[in-house]
Design a protein that fits this description.
heterodimer, A: about 800 residues, mainly beta, 6-stranded mixed β-sheet, B: about 150 residues
């Protein structure tokens, strides 16, 4: 005897998604680098409108020099931007050929404080006249090429298509004007701006609008601007905590956001570089710190406290799943952090800082993280580097446990620290424990009450302190400031490098702009609106779903009319319905069917049908009206098949039933079920012994009988009424057209004494001497309806 | 024998208006909780999940596909309404007939109806955030003719 042993193959969950590797998939030149001497860039329709986000602030940090740390006050932040042009005006002096260049530029989406005079450049030079405004066009000049040829001078090769103008809704715009001497080939060089205070946004910490360098403010701004996310799904409280954390840790975002990308991806990517992680808590999105923090938002380097301890008492069967991170992914790695050194009065330059958890910077794998697009402080870069390096080395595994519900149900939250201590007994003499701290990465509270926790190893030192937190907290800057390498300062207009006056706010929409809705394709007002204006379903006060279709009024339309598909000639079901009863042919109009008559089949719809002839007792037919064909067997008898049936004596007193059967190749006899039953009245028979019910008042009967031409046959009284023949008629058997004047009368007395006489109609049948037919009394027939009166017996 | 009972409450709202309130624990009864009436509907929430994106966050709700429930969730889908699931825990020895005043809230999930499907008789509603994992979304605005006209060609 064999038995089947069930094999349970567990399907792994998304544990791999908890991989702690943040290694970039590609490494390239610093994204924050700008080409100073390039040709002026023009805006192209369809490109993303940049968002210049940042704020230059003064902060204090600690500079490490050997064994000594000294406090350093430094300025951090600001964004160096190379805006694109949308309009231009080019003209020259008819005598000197001096070129006048005017450019209109878009700096950023949104509003921002005025730039300072010292912060606007063409090439690397602080030159030109500048205007800045918001939500309208900057400057008042009109675009166009007005270059004329000057004798003896080279013709300026300026753009011909100088742009039209637009409304510049919710954009910060710039106007730049400058002149260039004859032959100056720098007229078409790129202009740049150093933005000390970026766009004005709602700030989480301050609670007011203003320029910000907090990445949480930018994240919330982008989430709201994406118009895909309701405010109710933004966890503002957790975002504010994260904002305070980044502020305390001096992790600032100062960059131009211009690369089109997925918001979710951007949130994921950027969060790591601010020691944050994206959190979906209770369905709400937020950033939360990646490190334990104190109430003052500092990194908590004290003994790590855990929220709850899980033991084998909590673990459910098969509730422990662990994944160790291979050494190749954990070996000490040099983190080359790329950031941007941003001087206060000059163009920034790209810097690198190497961070490793071991004091070795040669013969080690190197990994580059480019923060130059938004990071403008060494402290920021090295803290992130320390975090990445420490976590790479010390986080050894991830864990998933399924545990029963307990007191933690109401307290445990994402990011909490928990302890898992499980007793392992593999040796009688000693007991060991799987005993680690973990950070809660994911919580799944199931309907059964079981809770599934995805946990990331939270490494601690011998004193119980977070190792990663210690490394990040210990990260300090060298504080070395690279010289920009700039050797020529003569191109600045004198005094500009220290001029911190704001550039003028001047501009306005030029005349002749196309209507504001030019780009908007009108919608036919007769078309359905979206979303449809519908009533809210009115839920009743009880608990029953009314399923009331009237509640759906106003919603999307439904097709009109029924479904009338064409028949499939191949796959349609076999037609087994003959299509109705039809009419049996050959039934005499003036008498019942009698033996010797020939009946013909009804006509059925299906081609190739077969007609069956059955004879059934009258009572049986009366009891099976409508379902006759289903009950033919038993009391009925199949007497013939075919298009005609010659009535025999066997049918006397019984109904003749014709049924049709359509061809059906799936049946043994090649025909489908019987349908379309049609019955005759009972075939005439000897009726002298038949008993009829008393005729009701004012009912006339015809007495139906068979008579030889040689004798009358009287009907005697049966019950009550008196029947007698008075005179009758018969048909000569040899000549059916001759009516013999022999009349039979049927008489009875009505209640009250009225005597009713009825002249019956005779029927009779040819009777050969050798024929064995009896002389039948055929029966009674209602004169009014022509229906045969059924005998009682 | 466990005395721990857990009841799920489902609310569909848009911040200003509460459209529906359902509960699935007290069969065929409308119960009063949190100053509101919660109708019975046999919905099933697969679990309340919180985590980082990419760790299969989001939840699904199985509901009978009656006409009214179907329209309710179609409207939630079309009008960007929010669904809030609350999971309460209580001691069944104290009462099993009505929500207990001291029952504990052990889980909350708020999300949008981001997808809906299933069979003719059973619908599975998925809640989550509409931040699509694919597609460019930021910066949110792009240059167009209305904003800048026909730009200069350098």
């Amino acid at each position: 005897m064999s038995s089947i042993i069930p094999v349970n193959i567990p399907i792994g969950g998304p544990m791999v998604l908890l991989s702690e590797s943040d290694a970039p998939t590609t490494e390239s030149a610093a994204q924050g680098s700008s080409a100073l001497e390039s040709r002026q860039r023009a805006i192209v329709i369809g490109e993303p409108i940049p968002i210049v986000f940042g704020k230059r602030v003064e902060r204090t940090t600690y500079k490490w020099n050997g064994d000594v740390s000294t406090a350093v006050v430094y300025d951090v932040g600001g964004v160096f931007v190379s805006p694109g042009a949308t309009e231009g005006r080019f003209s020259n002096n008819a005598t000197t050929n001096e070129l006048s260049v005017k450019l209109h530029l878009v700096l950023s989406q949104g509003d921002m404080p005025q730039l300072q005079v010292r912060d606007v450049f063409q090439r690397a030079c602080r030159v030109g006249t500048w205007k800045q405004t918001y939500d309208r066009r900057a400057g008042t000049w009109t675009p166009g090429n007005f270059i004329t040829a000057v004798a003896g001078k080279q013709l300026w090769d300026c753009p011909i298509f100088c742009g039209t103008s637009g409304y510049y809704d919710d954009l910060t715009t710039l106007s730049y004007e400058n002149t260039h001497a004859d032959g100056d080939d720098t007229w078409d060089r790129q202009v740049h701006c150093f933005v000390r205070e970026g766009i004005i946004v709602d700030r989480l910490i301050e609670g007011t609008a203003g320029s910000s360098n907090n990445v949480c403010d930018l994240a919330v701004y982008l989430i709201k601007q994406s118009s895909r996310f309701p405010d109710a799904l933004i966890d503002t409280a957790t975002f504010t905590t994260a904002a305070n954390f980044t502020e305390t840790q001096q992790l600032y975002y100062n960059g131009e956001f211009s690369e089109s990308q997925n918001l979710e991806d951007w949130l994921q990517d950027i969060s790591t570089y601010f020691l944050l992680r994206v959190s979906d808590k209770n369905g709400k999105k937020a950033f939360r710190p990646r490190l334990p923090i104190t109430g003052a938002y500092a990194i908590d380097t004290g003994v790590a406290a855990w929220e709850f301890g899980f033991t084998e008492d909590h673990l459910l069967p098969d509730g422990f799943e662990i994944e160790w991170i291979p050494f190749a992914d954990r070996r000490p790695t040099i983190m080359q952090m790329v950031w941007r050194q941003q001087p206060d009065d000059d163009i920034g330059l790209i810097r690198t800082s190497l961070v490793n958890i071991v004091d070795a910077f040669t013969d080690q794998p190197t990994e580059q993280h480019d923060l130059s697009q938004f990071c403008s402080s060494e402290l920021h870069a090295v803290k992130v580097g320390a975090y990445l390096a420490a976590r790479r080395a010390f986080v050894t595994h991830t864990l998933r446990i399924r545990v029963k519900p307990d007191a933690y149900n109401t307290t445990l939250a994402l990011g909490d620290i928990v302890r898992v201590k499980l007793r392992r007994e593999t040796d009688l003499s000693s007991v060991t424990f799987h005993d680690y701290l973990y950070e809660v990465e994911r919580i799944n509270k199931t309907l059964s009450g079981a809770v599934e926790l995805d946990l990331i190893h939270f490494p601690i030192d011998a004193s119980g302190r977070s190792v990663v937190a210690l490394y990040v907290q210990a990260a300090s800057v060298k504080g070395y400031v690279y010289d920009t390498g700039r050797s020529d300062f003569t191109c600045d207009i004198p005094g500009r490098d220290t001029d911190d006056d704001p550039i003028p706010d001047e501009g306005g929409d030029p005349p002749g702009l196309p209507p504001t809705d030019t780009d908007e394709t009108p919608v036919d007002p007769d078309l359905p609106t979206w979303p449809p204006t519908v009533p809210d379903p009115s839920w009743p006060d009880n608990t029953v779903d009314p399923d009331d279709p009237n509640n759906q009024a106003g919603r999307e339309g439904q097709p009109v009319g029924g479904i009338n598909n064409p028949a499939d000639p191949i796959d349609s079901a076999t037609d087994t319905d003959v299509g109705g009863g039809g009419t049996i042919g050959g039934i005499p109009g003036d008498r019942p069917v009698l033996p010797g008559d020939t009946l013909t089949s009804p006509t059925y719809l299906c081609p190739g049908y077969k007609t069956e002839w059955w004879i059934c007792p009258p009572a049986y037919v009366a009891n099976n009206v409508g379902v006759l064909e289903e009950n033919l067997t038993g009391a009925c008898e199949l007497v013939d098949e075919g298009s005609e049936y010659l009535v025999t004596a066997a049918a006397q007193g019984k109904h003749i039933v014709a049924i049709g059967r359509c061809p059906d190749p799936s049946q043994p006899d090649g025909f489908g079920p019987a349908t379309g039953a049609t019955a005759t009245d009972p075939v005439g028979d000897g009726g002298e012994s038949s008993i009829y019910a008393d005729p009701p008042s004012a009912t006339e009967y015809e007495v139906l009988t068979a008579e030889t031409y040689t004798q009358y046959r009287y009907i005697t009284s049966i019950t009550g009424p008196v029947f007698y023949f008075k005179q009758g008629s018969y048909v000569d058997h040899s000549n059916p057209s001759i009516i013999h004047n022999r009349q039979l009368r049927l008489r009875w007395t009505e209640p009250g004494g009225t005597v009713v006489d009825v002249i019956p109609t005779f029927f009779w049948q040819y009777d050969y001497p050798e024929d064995t037919f009896p002389l039948p009394f055929v029966g009674l027939k209602y004169k009014s309806s022509g229906q045969i009166v059924p005998p009682i017996s | 024998m466990s005395n721990r009972g857990q009841a799920q409450y489902l609310r569909i709202y848009n911040g200003a208006t509460n459209y529906e309130r359902f509960q699935s624990y007290y069969v065929n009864e409308a119960v009063t909780w949190d100053s509101a009436t919660w109708e019975y509907q046999p919905f099933v929430v697969n679990g309340l999940i919180g985590g980082t994106p990419g760790t299969d966050v989001g939840i699904t709700i199985d509901i009978p596909a009656t006409e009214t429930l179907l329209q309710t969730f179609k409207d939630a889908l079309n009008f960007n309404r929010l669904c809030e699931i609350k999971l309460y825990e209580f001691d069944t020895r104290l009462s099993n007939a009505a929500p207990q005043a001291g029952q504990l809230l052990i889980g909350v999930y708020v999300g949008e109806v981001i997808s809906m499907g299933g069979s003719f008789s059973l619908l599975t509603v998925r809640l989550g955030s509409t931040l699509a994992p694919v597609g460019a979304q930021v910066p949110p605005r792009k240059f167009n003719n209305h904003l800048v006209g026909a730009p200069i060609r350098l």
